[in-house]
Amino acid sequence: MNTLASEAAVPQPYLQVESLIKRFSGEGHDLAAVNGISFAVPKGRLFTLLGPSGCGKSTTLRCIAGLEKPEGGFIAVSGQMQVNTAEKVFVPPHKRGIGMVFQSYAIWPHMTVYENVAYALEVKRVPRGQVRERVMEALDLVGLGGLEDRPAPKLSGGQQQRVALARAIVGRPNLLLFDEPLSNLDAKLRERMRHEIRELQQRLEITTVYVTHDQTEALAISDTIAVMEGGTILSMGSPREIYGEPGNRFVADFVGLTNILRGQAVSNSLPDGTGRVDVSFGKVRCRFFGEIWEGDEVDVLIRPENISVSHSAPDVVENVWQATVDQVTFLGECQDCNVKVQDQILRIRVNPALELRVGQKVYLETNPHRCSSIRTH
User: Fold this and answer.
1) Cα-atom radius of gyration of the chain, to the nearest Å?
2) Distance (Å, rounded) from C-alpha 234 to C-alpha 209?
3) pLDDT tens-place string over residues 127-147
4) Rounded Cα gap, residues 102 and 179, in angstroms
5) What 3 state SS string does 51-62 have?
6) pTM of the full predicted structure?
7) Closest CA to 255 of 208, 212, 194, 298
């Protein structure tokens, strides 16, 4: 095999973060806000760091932007080293060619829309003859064409966020960073803006790192999601992989709603990748993730929408349980219900056309390939 040809065929990451460490001084000790994380983002992809407050996601983003100086690791963009702690390399923020959108829009209230966006080019000393053309192009891209003379304080929240986005892209950055950009918007506007950000990112084919604590937002816009907790990455994959195959209890509980049942494996993995687990109300056949052997303590993960409900007993005999409806909440597009199987409460989500009432007896069924088990740690 031609080694050089084979290496050339492997796409190189556009953004590479390796063994990144960032500590902050605490009371008598250092706190590792980012504890040796590594990831790579291909060119033109949107990579999301998802996790609760204090997990290290924003600190990671600030290290990429050059706003924090890490104590360990390296960061490279398009093959150019931005940080290498071993060789004492640290490129200052203004020389990294990065655009960033913050949670607070950072819009200057004494300027017009045009002046806010143009300022990003003026500080880069872009020739005056190019400024207007590039500003108007950026405003058109974010849907603010015709509002260039509007005073910034006269804008709505969504419009101010678009100004911040235009200012981030007008400099034609190598990399675009978002730090919780939609958290100050109401629910409907947040949903619309996340679709607009995704559409713009794909149209410009710009490599993007996006930070959020909102799981729905992450699932909706990302090519790849890294779930963080305690300064480390617990799980990384596509939105479908993170949701369907979380890999550990924290990720399963944090991303979406999940019934988590403690049990014991009563079989080894079968040829189809499933196995049987004994839980409080009986046996569950489910997919086995990782090495699980008979006798192992495991957590069984069942998403509420993966539990079918019927008024009469299904024809199948496996993964079927009789339950009593304990609580029903109508949410419009679905009914969110608690049902009791013996002494175990399960959360289910069913079609609103199915009539359910508290105290009613129903039958639950789940496909063995739509639920999973992981070893407890």
Assistant:
1) 25
2) 17
3) 888 999 999 999 999 999 999
4) 5
5) CCCCCCHHHHHH
6) 0.90
7) 212
Place of tokens 């299904």: 314
How many Å apart are CA 11 and CA 201, to the nearest integer? 20
Tell me the residue type at 279. Answer: V
- Tens digit of each residue's pLDDT (9 = 90 or more) over 290-320: 889 999 999 999 999 999 999 999 888 899 9
Structure tokens at 261: 């049942």
Residue count of the chain: 377
Closest CA to 323 of 253, 254, 259: 259
C-alpha 139: how far from chain center: 27
Do the Cβ atoms of 133 and 102 come closer than 8 Å?
no
